[in-house]
Amino acid sequence: MARAEHVDSAALARLIGGWRTEDVPLPHALAGALAELIAGNVLVEGAALPPQRALAAALGVSRGTVAEAYAELAAQGRLTSRQGSGSRVRRGRGAGGDHVVEGRLASFGRTRRPVELDLSSGALPALSLVRDAVSAVDLRELDVYLADDGYYAAGLPRLRTVVAEQYTVQGLPTAPDQILVTSGSQQAVWLCASSLVAPGDEVLVEEPGYRGAIEAFRTAGARLTGVPVRQDGLDLDHLERVAHRAALLYCQPAAHNPTGISWPAAGRERLSEIVGRHGVLTIEDRSCADLVLDDRGVRPPLPEPADPGSVVRIGTASKLLWGGLRVGWIRAERPMITRLTQAKAALDLAAPVLDQMVTAELLAQADRARRERTRRLRAHLAEAAAVLAERRPAWRWTPPHGGTALWIDTGTDAVALAGRARERGVLVTAGPAFSPSNAQRSRLRLPFWRPVEQFAHAVELLE
């Protein structure tokens, strides 16, 4: 039988998504949504569901609605309920898996019904440069690849060279064979989690931190420890106290997701010294580093520690250029690249050739792309700030150094706030999705890059 776990109300609300349907009583609709999660083994046998009152608050419904839904599932044999011990999932034979999937990336999947406005992701539309590059694909170069089998396990040589040059220009000398091309940065994170972490290892992640990494490391069986993020970056004093016992540290020092913070140079240097002294394998995720909002430009990579093999770096073209270009990469020492290339080949053989060709062409224009992104994002940020000052003056947030979203302290239960907004057709992501301990309940991540009319409309519905 699967390991029994308690399901947090905020996590379950994210998993359920848009569950209300017309002409179906609320209790029956909720029971149906929960039944889907049980049947799909998202909620495994023995998992303890949230107390009725907590789930009702997260979903924005009455406690009676949840009580009736639980009773319906119990009558179907899908739940067992005991006085004092709550309700637990019952699936019988055939249950697989050993943990509750928290669905932190549910915003990238389908919801049960259309929504009016989806602000659950900060992903950007394509730059105009992308269309031009697609139209200008060099058919002579393509003919060379078409004559081969198309499987370039570590990536197209041309793209690996271009990415290596980018790192070198930013102050980190890099050779092409220190680059592994992946199908987006999320695959890079999952490759690192599945290849470099053993079940039970302690992994340090930021609190709050990138939800995709939290999901990846938890799925790999890691024990997650949150290191607080302050207004100037990671709490390095806290890191100093826990680094000696950790197998790995995952962090985003530039344009951190979700806060938008970029660490100062002194912080980057001290982190490098700490992980080098304690021998902690460190993953520096620079996925959002190109999305700069202040006047300080793209921050350089972390300084190399004494052992250069102890830092693995992740990057992507998806944030700067377009998410439809599924091209990311890992920069590491050669033995690590060999190891990760073998793991990736077993997963999907190779990244798409055409995407890599277009990305190589576009990265040659990276400075132009950054200027265009910065100009547009700054304009949207100014408009969003004006809307919030007028309509939500009690909300508190720190101007981000980079990224596409605001990390807002609503001063109230943001999980319930997001639940009510979802029923009005607006999807937003509340703070617990970005927390390894399901904390940050008063926080919302609110992307600001939408047209101001859409942003203002969403803010009106967030009440």
The neighbouring-strand order within the major sheet is 4-11-10-9-8-5-6-7
Quantity of strands, as a count: 14
Counting copies of identical and different chains, the oligomeric state is single chain
Average pLDDT rating:
89
Rg over C-alpha atoms, rounded to the nearest angstrom: 23 Å
Shape: globular
Estimated share of beta-strand residues: 5-15%
Span between N and C termini?
42 Å
Structural class by SSE content: alpha/beta
Poorly predicted tracts of residues: 93-104
Description:
It is a single chain. With 463 residues, the protein is of the alpha/beta class. Helices cover 40% and strands 14% of the residues. Strands 4-11-10-9-8-5-6-7 form an 8-stranded mixed β-sheet, sandwiched between helices. It is globular, with a radius of gyration of 23 Å. Helix 1 packs across helix 3, helix 2 crosses helix 4 and helix 7 runs parallel beside helix 13. About 3% of the residues have low confidence. The longest helix has 26 residues. The chain is built from 16 helices and 14 strands.
